Amino acid sequence: MSLLLKKIQSYKENVFQNHESHYQSLKSGQEPHTLLVTCSDSRICPQEFSQTQGGELFIIRNAGNLIPPYDPAHPSNEALTLEYGISVLGIPEIVVCGHASCGAMGGLKDLEHIKSLPLVHKALENYRQTHAAEVEGQSLEELISWNVTTQLKALFTYPFVREGLQNGSLKVFGMVYDFTTAEVTFNTQLNETGECSQ
User: Phi and psi dihedrals of 67, rounded to 5?
Assistant: First the structure.
């Protein structure tokens, strides 16, 4: 049995009984309070650092916590998740969470370092070309914060996000979490005109 299956079995035997009634209550549906966009990095444990349990977070995870701009002709998986979360589940808050020591932003800063990863290299090369003037000369920490703000602006390209911001049914935030200290080192909010403010 794989390590993951062993851990699931251990959870069932030793922990689940303390949460079973909660999960039974979720059987008929979900009402998450936050749609969280964060990185795939294994060092980021959203439900741990946010002290949430099943049913509270609707999560999109990918390398670099990236949100492709709205493109109805070629919808991404992120777009599908956003639309369902906001338009069907009525989630009132989106949070984009970047993190310290982000490998994707490290790759964006130094494309030569990731040349052996053709898919990663091509994706980040395209991203860098789109934002060349903004990326040039930034430190890794600056890039991580900049990237969070850039994803908020990408969210604003989605009509249902704009509508929610403008009618007050949705709030959109960005933050950077340092997993080594449990500190939020940067935070910002997207307003109804698509601008970010700290």
Answer: -120, 115
Structural domains of the chain in order of their starting residue, each with its CATH number: 91-198 (3.40.1050.10)
Decide if 34 contacts 56 (C-beta within 8 A). Answer: yes
Is the model's pTM score more than 0.85? yes
Structure tokens at 13: 């035997």
Q: At residue 57, what are phi and psi to the nearest 5 degrees?
A: -115, 135
Residue located via tokens 């709030």: 171
The β-bridge partners of 95 are 36, 173
pLDDT digits (tens, 9 = 90+) for 116-136: 999 999 999 999 999 999 999
CA 76 to mean position of chain CA atoms: 14
Give SS3 for 197: strand
Give yes or no for a contact between 150 and 104, defined as CB atoms under 8 angstroms apart: no
Query: Residues 157, 69: contact at Cβ < 8 Å?
Result: yes
Identify the DSSP state of 147.
H
Structure tokens at 135: 């990326």
